[in-house]
Amino acid sequence: MRRVLLALVSLLSLTASPAFAGPSPQTANFTVSANVMRGCRVSASPLNLGTYDPSLTVDLAPAAGSTISVNCTKGTVFAIEPLTTTNTFQMANGAERLAYALYQEVGHTTNWRTTGTGGTAVSSNTAVTFGVYGVVAAGQDVAEGAYLDTVTVTVTF
């Protein structure tokens, strides 16, 4: 008898449980969350300064330039540090060196070597672009050949 009474009490406690209370359907809520991280990506296109003639007395300063593109999380304040190179702004061809300068505008007033720049990302989906324009000074005594240097772009945020 005692077992029957215990079984009856257990059955009654199951039917009185809140999980089974109320009409159908029953609803519940849950939250959805995500964290957006602050970050930036930087890219740059190659810069070809053309063909240099050391016998000429005018600088080689093509109007065409290159671009640095920075894409950051919306609202991120970023800075492009002054540019650095592997050969101190000299293109190399073996032991030969051909000096050059990089500027932020086609008018060659703001030198990338000494002055960085920056901005604030308006959209996470749109890159901010900056110009890079090169000048090879006239009168350099160099041998024929292909000259190359690698420029490093550093973005802080």
Brief synopsis:
9% of the residues lie in helices and 29% in strands. The protein is built from one helix and eleven strands, in the order αβββββββββββ.
Q: How does this structure look, described?
A:
The protein has about 160 residues and is mainly beta. It has one domain (about 40-155): Fimbrial-type adhesion domain (Immunoglobulin-like, Sandwich), CATH 2.60.40. It is about 10% helix and about 30% strand. It contains 1 helix and 11 strands, in the order αβββββββββββ. A 4-stranded antiparallel sheet has the order 1-2-9-7, with no helix packed on it. The protein has a 3-stranded antiparallel sheet with strand order 8-3-11, with no helix packed on it. The protein is rod-shaped and about 95 Å long. The protein starts with a helix and ends with a strand.
Order of helices and strands: HEEEEEEEEEEE
- As for the CATH topology, it is Immunoglobulin-like
Which of globular, elongated, flat, extended, rod-shaped describes the shape? rod-shaped
Counting helices, strands and paired strands, the structural category is: mainly beta
The overall number of domains is: 1
Percent of residues in helices comes to: under 10%
CATH level-1 class = Mainly Beta
CATH-assigned homologous superfamily: Fimbrial-type adhesion domain
Q: Strand content of the residues, in percent?
A: 25-35%
CATH architecture level-2 label: Sandwich
Total helical elements: 1
Radius of gyration: 33 Å
How many extended strands?
A: 11
**Main β-sheet description:** 4 strands, antiparallel
